[in-house]
Amino acid sequence: MLRVTKHIAQRDATKRVTYLCHKIVVSSNSNYSTLNHRFGGGSYHRQQQHGSNGQGSGGQHFRSDFLAPHGPKAWTIPPNRGYGMVVVRILRGALKLRYLLLGGAIGGGMTLNKKYEDWKDGLPDLKWLEEALPQGEKWSQFSKTLMEIGGAVKDVIEIAKDDIKSKTTVAALSLSQDESRKKYDNLQSQVETLQTEIMNVQIKYQKELEKMEKENRELRQQFLILKQNKKTSTKKIKKSLIDMYSEVLDELSGYDTSYSMADHLPRVVVVGDQSSGKTSVLESIAKARIFPRGSGEMMTRAPVKVTLAEGPYHVAQFRDSDREYDLTKESDLSELRREVEFRMRASVRGGKTVSNEVISMTVKGPGLQRMVLVDLPGIISTMTVDMASDTKDSIHQMTKHYMSNPNAIILCIQDGSVDAERSNVTDLVMQCDPLGRRTIFVLTKVDLAEELADPDRIRKILSGKLFPMKALGYYAVVTGRGRKDDSIDAIRQYEEDFFKNSKLFQRRGVIMPHQVTSRNLSLAVSDRFWKMVRETIEQQADAFKATRFNLETEWKNNFPRLRESGRDELFDKAKGEILDEVVTLSQISAKKWEEALNDSLWDKLSNYVFENIYLPAAQSGSQNSFNTMVDIKLRQWAEQALPAKSVEAGWETLQKEFIALMEKAKKSPDHDNIFDNLKAAVVDESIRRHTWEDKAIDMLRVIQLNTLEDRFVHDKSEWDQAVKFLETSVKAKLAQTEETLNEMFGPGQFTRLTHWKSLTEDQNKRRHVKTELDKILRNDDKHIPTLSYDELTTVRKNLQRENIEVDTDYIRQTWFPVYRRHFLKQALHRASDCRKAYYLYSQQGAECDINCNDVVLFWRIQQVIRVTANALRQQVINREARRLDKEIKEVLDEFSEDEEKKSHLLTGKRVTLAEELIKVRQIQEKLEEFINSLNQEK
C-alpha cells in the first residue's frame, strides 16, 4: 500500500512539473509551434495505452500497469529524456512552492486556485521533451535563461514586498495623531490589566505553593518522628549575627516606612546612574548573578535589600519564603532572577514605574562579607514614553530618603566609560553627605575607561581631586566584559587579570593596589558597616525603650481594661463571630422560615398576579372566559417566570435573615463595634458571590405546575383563608390606588382648610374630569375597563361647556385609576358575599350562582406559594445555608491574606495604637537579642 501511495505521489509531481516545463520552454525556446501542436493550445490529452510492450497509439513509453511498477515489466525512459529528469530535479529541489508564482509570471496560463483534482486528469505524454528540450550549446543557453528568469521573479517579489510595506507605512501614518494615541492608550490599558491579572494569579499560586511546601516539610518531620518511635527535642537553631541584624532592619522598615525617625540602623545604600553598573557591583560582592538583566531598559524598579552572610553553601532565600535557591546551579539562578523580576513588577501598581516596596532576600555563601546592602533604581536624566510622568522625581525622592539616614553608608557608583561630567549621582550624594564621612566612591568599567580616558584623569578620580564630592575611600572595579552569560568566577578572574596587566599600574602611583578589585571593595565596605553598627546600635535600642514606654502609658490611659490585640488577632476573633452567626441560621424554626418566605414570595409575585392574571381575567366579562384565561396564564407563568422569581425571593429571604441575625448580634452586651466594618464587608462580598443552585428552578417548576392543576377548594378552612387572602390583597392594591388618586386630584376639602393647601391647575382640571367619569360609572355599574369613543366625546364636550380643554389621552389617564378603584371595591363586595358561600360552591362547583372565581384563583395562588415556601425552606436549611457558609469562609480566607484590606476594614485608634505597640516590642526584643550576641562576639 505504501509503495502504491508513493508512486501515486511521484506521478502527480511529475504531472505538475511537466506542465511547468512546458510553460518555461514555450517562453524561452523557438519550438513554440511544435509544442502548441502537441498540446492542442496548452491543454493536456491523455492517450490510451495498448499492447503487451506498454506502447500506446502515440508511441509513448508507458505501461498500462503504471500503478505497479515493481511487476515483471517496469516502464522505461528514453536516453534523451535525461534532460527532462534534470529539469524535474532542479525545479522540485530549488523552486519548491515558488513554481506556481514562476509559472504564472512567465506563462500566465493557469490560475493559482486550480484544484488538485483537475491535475489528475491523466498522465501526459512526455515524448515531446525529446524535441522540445535544447541540445548541446542550446542547453547552456537554456540554463542561463532559466537563471535570469528566476532572478527577475525574485526581484519582482522583493519589489512587491517593499510596495506592501510602504503602503502599510503610509496607511499607518495617515491616521491622525489623536487616533493613534487613543489606540495606543487603549492597548496599553488592556496590557496593564492583563499583566495585573497574571501577577495576581501568580502571587496566589506562589503563596499556595509555599504553603504546600511548608506543610510537606512538617508532615515529613512528623513521619520521621513516628518512624523512629521516640521523642525528639527540637533544638533552637542559633541565628547568625547578620541574620539577626537583617531581621531588625526588616521590622524597622515595616514600622517606619517613611523614614522619619531621627536615627536609623546602618545599611549600605547602592546608588548610581542608570546602567552605571551598580547592580553588577552588588552581584560581584554577593558572588552570584542574582538580578535580571535588560538591554538598556530599567530593570531595578523597587528597593532590593540583600543581606550577605557567610555560610557553608551558596544559597539565596526571600524573607517571606522558605524556598532556598542553590546559586551554584544555573537553573536555580534563572528561577531566582525571574522571581526578582516578577516581584518588582508586582510591586508597581496604578501605572507607576517604580515602587517603594522593599524586596528582601538573604544570600549566604563561603567567603561572603557580612553586611546589608540596598540596591535602588538607577537615577535617570531623561524619561521615555512608557514611564510614568513622576518617575524621575520618584527615584530622586527615594534615593534621598535612603541616603538621608545619618547612619547609611553610601556606595556611590560612577560609570568609568562615560565622561564624569555627565554623572547625576555625584551631586545628589554631595547634598546628602557633603563632608563624605559615610560615602565610598566606586569607579566601574575601568577596562573601558583605560581605552577611552587619560590615566591622569583616572588618577584624579580615584584620589578625589576631580569631583568636589568627598568620600571615605575610592575604588576601581571591573564588573564584566558585557556578556550576560559570564559567571561571577569568570568576571572576577577577568578583573584580576586586567588589573595585573593594566597600563594604570605601569606608572607608579597612579592607583594603589588596595583601591582595586571587588574583593578589596567588599572588605572595606563590610569593615565600615560593622564599625558603624557598633557605634549606633545602643543608641537605637535606647530610643525604642523610650518609645515603648510612651506607647504603653498611652494604652493604659485610653484602654485600661483591654489587651493589646493586633489586626491579625482581631481578624481571627471577628472570623469566629461571623461563622457563629452562620450556624444560627440553621436554628431558625421552620415556621419562621415559611412565614418569611411566604411574605417575600407574595411581595415578589403580587404585582404580576394582579396586573397579568387577575385583572385581565376578572374584567373579561364572563365566568367561563375568566377560568379559561386564568388556566392559560397560570400555566405559562409556572413554566416560565414563576420558578425563577421564587428562587429570587428565597435568596432575598436568606439574605434578610442573615443580615437580621448580624444586626441582632450588635445589640448584645458583648458586642465590639470594631468588627462592624469587617463583618459588613464579608457579608456583602459573600452575598454577591452566592447564587442559588440551578437545579432548584427545575424542581420548583414541577412542584408548581402540579399544584396549579388543582382547581377545587377542599374544605371550609381553606375557603376562609382564600377569602381572607383575597381581601387582604385587594385592600393593599386599593390603598395604592387611593394614593395615586390623592396625588392626581390633590387633598380634600378638610385637609386644604386645616393645612393651608391649595389645588394646582392640573389637579383642578382632573377633578372636573373625574366628576364626568363618576357619572359614567354610576349609570353603568358593570362598565367595561375602557371608554368608548362616544363616551370620550361626551366627556370632552361637557368639559368644554365649563371652558376646560382636554384631549382623549388625558381623559384615559384619569379614567384608569378611577375605574381601578371602582373595580377593586366591587371585588371586596364579592369577597364578602363569597365568605359564606362555600356550601353552595361545594355543591354546585363552577356552576355556583355567586361569582366566586376570584376566590378560587387566590386559593390556587395561595397553595402554590405555600408549597414553594416549603420547598425553599428545605433548600435553605439543607443546601443554601451550607453553601453560604462555605463562601463566607472563602471570603474570610482571602481577606486574611490581604493586609491592605484588613487595615482598611479594621480601623480606629485602638487598632493603630495596639499595632504600633506590638511592633515596637518586637523591634526592641530583636535589638536586645542582637546586642547581646554582638557583645559576645566582641
Short description:
The chain contains 31 helices and 9 strands. The chain has helices at residues 2-28, 32-39, 82-95, 99-106, 128-132, 137-174, 177-228, 241-255, 278-286, 330-347, 391-404, 425-432, 446-452, 455-462, 488-501, 518-558, 567-585, 590-618, 623-639, 641-666, 676-689, 695-708, 716-745, 749-755, 761-779, 789-801, 808-834, 838-844, 853-897, 899-905, 909-937; strands spanning 268-272, 304-310, 315-318, 325-326, 359-365, 371-375, 409-415, 439-444, 473-476.
Protein described:
The protein has helices spanning 2-28, 32-39, 82-95, 99-106, 128-132, 137-174, 177-228, 241-255, 278-286, 330-347, 391-404, 425-432, 446-452, 455-462, 488-501, 518-558, 567-585, 590-618, 623-639, 641-666, 676-689, 695-708, 716-745, 749-755, 761-779, 789-801, 808-834, 838-844, 853-897, 899-905, 909-937, and strands spanning 268-272, 304-310, 315-318, 325-326, 359-365, 371-375, 409-415, 439-444, 473-476. It has 938 residues and is mostly helical. It contains 31 helices and nine strands. It is 63% helix and 5% strand. Residues 1-10, 13-81, 94-117, 119-134, 164-175, 230-237 and 258-263 have low confidence and may be disordered. It has a nine-stranded mixed β-sheet with strand order 4-3-5-2-6-1-7-8-9, with helices on both faces. β7 (409-415), α12 (425-432) and β8 (439-444) form a beta-alpha-beta unit.
